[in-house]
């Protein structure tokens, strides 16, 4: 159970997410993924997400997407990431650690996929990248959510490199 201080930090983080990521409607289906034709993984992601157009995403979508970050286009990522962040910090679901793990892990790409990761995050503003860093700090401080310090450090490094690219 979270103490009052943790609840306040969570509220501040939620406010940061809401400020950094203004509401965005789901993009057109073909804009959600990196491949528009000939990729069954991307087609599956589009089909899954399209079923929720105009609806609130549920737990099954977040669980499905945790392993499908690589299929999202920059526009799809920009739309999906604030929804995912809000869901991860929601106090209504105790199994956030696994979802957070996959998010943190996606910010620690293998060298051969680093370029595609930078591209996927290319539409994020400096403020939005700083919000992701703040999210990682929150995870790092809150043992109830995420415990792998090594992964978190690698993710910090990746996001700081992205921030430097955006700032220059």
Provide a short characterization of the protein structure.
The chain is mostly helical. The chain has eight helices and no strands.
Structural class: mainly alpha
Averaged pLDDT, please? 88
Determine the strand fraction and express it as a percent band: under 5%
Q: Tell me the total number of β-strands.
A: 0
Helicity level, as a percent range? 55-70%
Number of domains: 1
How does the major sheet shape up? none
N-to-C series of helices and strands: HHHHHHHH
* Low-confidence segments: none
Number of helices: 8
**Shape from CA axes?**
globular
Radius of gyration: 15 Å
End-to-end Cα distance = 42 Å
Describe what this molecule looks like in 3D.
This protein is mainly α. It has one domain (4-167). The chain is built from eight helices and no strands. The longest helix has 19 residues, at 149-167. It is globular. The mean pLDDT is 88.
Characteristics:
single chain, 62% helix, 168 residues, mainly alpha
Task: Draw up the topology in text.
Layout: H1 4-20, H2 40-50, H3 59-65, H4 74-89, H5 96-106, H6 114-120, H7 126-141, H8 149-167
């Amino acid at each position: 159970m979270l103490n009052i201080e943790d609840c306040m930090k969570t509220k501040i983080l939620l406010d940061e997410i809401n400020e950094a990521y203004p509401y965005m409607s789901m993009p057109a289906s073909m804009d959600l993924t990196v491949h528009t034709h000939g990729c069954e993984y991307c087609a599956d992601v589009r089909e899954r997400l399209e079923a929720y157009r105009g609806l609130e995403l549920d737990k099954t979508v977040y669980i499905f997407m945790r392993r499908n970050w690589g299929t999202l286009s920059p526009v799809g990522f920009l739309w999906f990431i604030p929804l995912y962040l809000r869901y991860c910090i929601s106090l209504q679901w105790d199994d956030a650690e696994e979802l957070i793990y996959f998010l943190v892990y996606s910010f620690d790409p293998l060298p051969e996929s680093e370029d595609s990761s930078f591209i996927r995050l290319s539409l994020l503003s400096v403020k939005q990248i700083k919000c992701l860093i703040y999210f990682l700090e929150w995870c790092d401080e809150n043992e109830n959510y995420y415990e792998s310090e090594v992964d978190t450090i690698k993710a910090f490094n990746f996001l700081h490199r992205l921030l430097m690219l955006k700032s220059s």
